[in-house]
Amino acid sequence: MITNLPNLLTLFRIVVIPLMVAAFFLDFPVANWLSFGLYAAACVTDYFDGWLARAWNQVSPLGRFLDPIADKLLIAAALLMLVARDHITGVAIIAAVIIMCREMLVSGLREFLAELRVGVPVSKLAKWKTTVQMLALGFLMVGKASPAAIPSEDIGLWGLWIAALLTVITGFDYLRAGLKHMTGKTA
């Protein structure tokens, strides 16, 4: 058993980000499929690093620190590149901004609560939000390169709006829990 595999998978996710961004600048359809392939590999490691850490009882402070950062970096880079390359346009940019703002809000909240030694567990709805978000961004990356029978752009845009809605709901839940600690009105 490789002792550091969960942390290595998390680090892999971070290392893949610049490669994924660079792939966006290749010619169509190579750019779509290569960036999607790298993104999909990173998304898969998001599941397995946590699963392996728990299964092998290797949850570490480094892993707890790096995992949410790797997730946020991956999503932020994907959103920025999808907007920059016109895969997300018009009012759909609002959904992307909602997702980005929530990620920053929750990161700041987690940092503040960590100073108070208060953990913020990830809710099941937040896990669903992450899954929908990752799937939506994957469909948007493939975009026009997908087979005609698969409306990747439509699926991706619908998924992006659903992820934005779940983002608002879960962000509000985290904020409400955090405000109790900030105001001293803990249950």
From TrEMBL:
The keyword rRNA processing does not apply. It catalyses: a CDP-1,2-diacyl-sn-glycerol + sn-glycerol 3-phosphate = a 1,2-diacyl-sn-glycero-3-phospho-(1'-sn-glycero-3'-phosphate) + CMP + H(+). Pathway: Lipid metabolism; Phospholipid metabolism; phosphatidylglycerol biosynthesis; phosphatidylglycerol from CDP-diacylglycerol: step 1/2. GO terms for biological process: glycerophospholipid biosynthetic process. It is found in: Membrane. Its EC number is 2.7.8.5. Its main location: membrane. The keyword Membrane applies. Keywords: Lipid biosynthesis, Lipid metabolism, Membrane, Phospholipid biosynthesis, Phospholipid metabolism, Transferase, Transmembrane, Transmembrane helix. One of its GO terms (cellular component) is membrane. InterPro entries: CDP-alcohol_PTase-I, CDP-OH_P_trans, CDP-OH_PTrfase_TM_dom, CDP_ALCOHOL_P_TRANSF_CS, Phosphatidylglycerol_P_synth. Belongs to the CDP-alcohol phosphatidyltransferase class-I family. This is CDP-diacylglycerol--glycerol-3-phosphate 3-phosphatidyltransferase.
